[in-house]
Fold these 4 entries.
Entry 1:
Amino acid sequence: MTKETLTITDNRTGRTFELPVTHDTINAMDLRQIKVNDDDFGMLSYDPGFKNTASTKSTITYIDGGKGILRYRGYPIEQLAEKSNFLEVAYLTMFGELPNQEQYDKWAYEIRHHTFVHENIKRLMEAFRHDAHPMGMFISVVAALSTFYPEARNIFDEKDRMKQIVRLIAKVPTIAAFSYRHSRGLPYVYPDNDLSYTGNFLNMLDKMTQVRYEPDPILARALDVLFILHVDHEQNCGTATMRVIGSSNTDPYSAMAGAAAALYGPLHGGANEAVLRMLLEIGDVKNVPAFVEGVKKRERLLMGFGHRVYKNYDPRAQILKSYADKVFEATERNPLLDIALELERIALEDDFFVERNLYPNVDFYSGIIYQAMGFPIAMFPVLFAIPRTVGWLAQWVELLNDKEQKIARPRQIFLGEDERDFVLMENR
Ligand code: SDX
């Protein structure tokens, strides 16, 4: 019978320690007993960027980076993208099981009837310049919502907590659409609660003088699939931020504003915007080889490529690549797709990328599709934040229910100055 332990010998003292192994993991706190002197603090592990550190146990999303597997609550992303819809996947992610018809109808009704925001939110958005980045507006408004719902601080009252979860999932498309309309100098369009989640989003984005807006079903479905693909992705930077902020027991609006701020970064959810700007800069397929050479010389990153977990093709990128053609039937073929396909062809053959396991990730194709659908590039990270709201909230609830969790407070290796006395100005 093999022993589920790790034996460590500290060669500084000759002492041996036996650490229990569970889920192929050791508990970092078990390292603290390893000391040279009894009054030492004890051993730490050093892991910048948390490349090899589990911060939580979770049952929400499973990723196998080597095999390119992604499952929400055990269901493969490919099946969910093909057979489900965003609100159903949101229910699954939040509650752990697919809803029956009655559960689904109640959930969809709840979400569709909390889409309005307080009228003061419009005045708050008026304070932004016309060219304010919509993600900056999104983050600000989400944080501001915490002031409209003070009961959100009752995070351990399940009824109050669920009310905020429904409000956030329901209102993020409204906030996104209002920020888009603000940037275009157009009047805000109020939600139409008889439309689907994505149909209503298109309505609030595009409605002009029509008495009633009829969303294009192909585009509404394409958005639904895009939203499904972006719902959750285990402990990514934005979700880890949601958990770190949530671990101080703050309200979900404040925690989610921080998560959205992390997502905004070009190395994370802001990569879809950066991909488009990269493709526009390349401008023509004939310029791709020179651009790739620049990447290999470390002059810049190939945005939309690489991933901390996937060392194979991101399954979401596979689905998006196949979906692009469907969207282009309803819009028009995006010429940038040819540049993207050439970039991918070269990268998948070139040792520089192959040796580093750099494959297209979810952000590589999503931007091309969003642009073909008419979204301005600056809206792309907001389009990522809308569906990821579900993942952030599901992970936040899991954090609150996890008795092993404590306030996040990492340690450090101090390499600074030893104690020294203050020197008066005249003596410096
Ligand atoms: C998302 O975590 C998630 O799950 C995120 C996400 C989600 O759903 O939440 O999947 C969404 O954020 C997708 C990633 C979007 N970001 C980009 O497309 C930006 C470009 N990608 C890189 O910045 C990078 O690949 C990261 C940030 C995504 C991953 O970085 P890692 O894991 O820290 O890897 P690394 O920086 O250590 O890179 C390893 C090597 C390095 O070369 P060497 O120093 O070893 O020689 O690969 C190189 C890097 O320089 N490299 C790249 C590259 N990505 C990594 N070189 C050129 N272009 C790139 N894109």
Entry 2:
Amino acid sequence: MNLIRRPRRNRKSSAIRSMIEETHLGVKDFIFPMFLIEGTNKKIEIDSMPGIHRFSLDLLLNEIEECMKLGIHTFCLFPAIDEAKKNSMATEGWNEKGLYPQALAAVKQHFPEACLMTDVAMDPYSSDGHDGIVRNGIIVNDDTLEVLGKMALAQARAGADIIGPSDMMDGRVGYIRDMLDAEGYENVSIMSYTAKYASAFYGPFRDALDSAPKFGDKKTYQMNPANKTEAIIEAEMDYAEGADILMVKPAFSYLDVIQTLKENFPTPVSAYNVSGEYAMIKAAANNGWLDNNTARDEMLLSIKRAGADVILTYFAKEFALAHSNI
Ligand code: PBG
């Protein structure tokens, strides 16, 4: 057959395939989310996230050290708070003597070169399990900002490098930016959860932290999975309010949103490869229905190809171990 163009020629050997590869994944692309619990010598696997654990601070430090040796330098910590310390105003969230700020400070003290991202939202500390203050069944916006600001400040004081507001209240990036700047933390970055969808794929994370909403759902603040144009409004606001990096969450079902933000905004874009996306691959692989490593790498590659400069992923450590020779 007379075919001038035969695309298969560029696929004929591993040497050619790797030479013309357009997207490259590496451990430097990743942020490793980790779960922190009270106590010592505790390492408890999360049932719905095989291979991922909740660590007490002492063992978390060991885990971070191992990851640093594998080339992972950025970590995002999430605290699991005792039910007894939760209340409607999430006051434990800005207690500077609390589990979270103390752990952040300890990590920075042991590993000053590690980059630490935090989570700003009320849900881990809230007796309502919501990201904002609840009044008469409504999640109130503006009063919540004060709580979020206090949390961000406590985290910055503890040494956080990047503040990650995951709450989806309107105006929170600007509010937090002002508060940080007023206190002399103008070098602390904000990675905003810009387009965060009301997703079923957060299920295993809520198991890990026992942070599921006590009533209702998060649809009055997290975005409708049907919408993409709205992600541009969110991104315009976060960009104008000073966000350094814009995040899309979840990642795998929202590749189009990642691409849209990447094409329309000059900041780096990150994507959160969430707990349910991790759990799906693990569950299928454990049943012998998918090959864990190739499915994992394909998922991560797709997220990067769509336009993510940074990927928060529970696969970070196993990817680093699997590819430690490159
Ligand atoms: C809460 C928060 C959630 C995640 C990160 N921060 C869950 C939620 O919004 O209910 C989900 C992460 C994951 O599923 O891996 N503010």
Entry 3:
Amino acid sequence: MNVNIKIGFAEKESAELLVFYLYEDVKTVEGALAFFDKALNNAITELIKKKEFIAKLNKTITLPTYGKIPAKRIMLAGLGKKKDVTFDKVRQAAGTTASITRDMGIREVTGVIDSIEIPNPSSIEWYQAYVEGCLLALYKFQRYKNVPSEEQKEIKSLTLLLSKKESFKPANEAAKQGQIIADAVYFTRDLINTPAQDKTPAILADTAKKLAKEPGIQCKVLSKPELKKLGMGGILGVSQGSIEPPKFIILEYNARAKNQDTIVFVGKGLTFDSGGICLKQAKDMDQMKSDMSGGAAVLGAIKAISRMKLPQHIVGLIPCAENMPSGSAIKPGDIIKFRSGKTAEVANTDAEGRLILADALDYAEKYRPSAVIDLATLTGSCVVALGTAASGMLGNNEELKKRVKIAGEKTWERVWELPLWEEYQEQIKSDIADIKNIGGPHAGAITAACFLSKFTEKYPWVHLDIAGTSWCEKNNAYLQKGASGVGVRLLVQLVQNWSRFS
Ligand code: BES
Ligand code: ZN
Ligand code: ZN
């Protein structure tokens, strides 16, 4: 899709549809909208006065202009109360208006950006939120659908209409950044929405290799013989019940940046989690194709970071496996030995994420990283605790947790901290191995992180449990039912902020 920045006047714009953004608590029609109001015999003032349109967030109304002005229609879109406006409200309002425009069969979105009254018009962030909101809202996963071309509704171009010349530069930069971000989120969402049959560990590894065609990215894939040599019993154990062999994806961006900090992203890459011998119930088991959301977010983030040419050295580690029940599957009670030498009793084969992550987190140490962030759809317990509005955050370093929290607020991929106190470590003690892979019925998200913490002692580490945030049950302003792509925007923001705060 084309994203254009246009300096011009809404009054003269002959678009199919012009979108104006309004605040709920501003009752007077001002600026360019006043011109439209007059041309339409005060129709807009009347709508607001009679409360037929209240500019609450994500509410819209569309009016025909009957040839009285060059634009064919105008849409009024609510942003809520002016004092409460945030990047995410702009993202949401933009997304809502873009998808409504698309569903009307119109092929272009023209937003009158001055009407948002951006608090800081010279910074790119507000414009970027707008572009991101529009693009993310227009995502559709249609790989497996036959859609007749006459039913195909698609926005071909998005125009940010601005009246001041000075706004061109920041808005244009925002358009570029927003497109890179949205492209990466689309890539991640596509991978997650794809059925497990078409994204086996081998296919994911090939996808990562293709990504290495982007500037500055290298990819190495470790297969079963190499994993055996490295003693990665976690990845090997989880995958042994499946006919799909495991793969360990290693991506590096900017490997030659010797004076830069190294940040490692680790993503859970379970291409399907049936639960193994401790089989999950049938209801919603199909959603377990999304158990590689952490890995997909790592791939998407690295894609965006390379396109943005950020200066840091980034490593992405994605252990990939399929968790299946079979005659060769790992059994409850089996003991596995990790690359680090530690042993674990597999008390439940459905708690497999921590087993593959243990080897990857241990491997991360060899990069002497300044930070390691892992993302994993790790526990149902985290969904019980936090629902879908926040990812669970646990870690061993206050400064890194703070950075992740700041990036989460900015991108609205928010995180909420859970305690990783010593007391909880008690729950994963095993009678016959160093540790066991479940910690009983209480505090499951925490005990899962306790397990991971045994492999992350040598560097600053944050774990993000994205079980509740990676998948949407219903459509939202800029998130559709299905994969959210959570983590991509957060990781990119974290890296963008890295030197600013160090
Ligand atoms: N992949 C699941 C966690 C999950 C649940 C992700 C719901 C997304 C939505 C994970 O491997 C799992 O099965 N965890 C178990 C752990 C339990 C056996 C200790 C869980 O949370 O039930
Ligand atoms: Zn599981
Ligand atoms: Zn899982």
Entry 4:
Amino acid sequence: MANILIVEDEPGIASFVSKGLRAAGHQPTAVGTGREAINHALTDGYDLVILDIGLPDIDGFEVLERMRGSGSKTPVIILTARASVDDTVAGLEGGADDYMPKPFRFEELLARIRLRLRSETGGGDLGVLSVGDLSLDLRARTVTVGGEVIELAAREFELLEAFMRHPDQVLSREQLLSRVWGYDFDPDSNVVDVYVGYLRKKVGAGRIVTVWRVGYRLTTRG
Ligand code: CA
């Protein structure tokens, strides 16, 4: 569990990230202005800061500059519009550890957070999830079934990761859609069903059970 400061002025994105972080076992705090961000980042003991660039008062670059200027070494992941990636790369020289172009998928943000937290603590959790004879290596991004490596596309991998984090638990289409495809994805899309189909072909059809009108569940039996 990590204490994570979210600096984001769009309430929809702030709540999307907060919910996801809480579900992943972290303790998120969200603020919507640069000034609040500086106060929080410098006074409270956060393990990581997720920092939006476009804020209503001072921008994220200035927040970062003030943090680093005050000696804060807290890892910072910048959120930025895709069109401003060039500016952001310049921002990285200002002391950010990573950046994430918007729109982004939660699993992708979570992977980067994990990586940053891990490099802070100097290793430790190697990030291998195991459910029965399924094994998923988060760092190498490989999956084995009964010891045999299988090839998965990026979304298939992320979908399997979402299931393996919650074995024997029903996950709704909406949960899977927001975790794997992102907050801006059409909720009426059938992409989850399509990808569950792909995944079943690769890991074995019986492992992912359809729960009628609710969603899907990764079973640890059979
Ligand atoms: Ca913004």
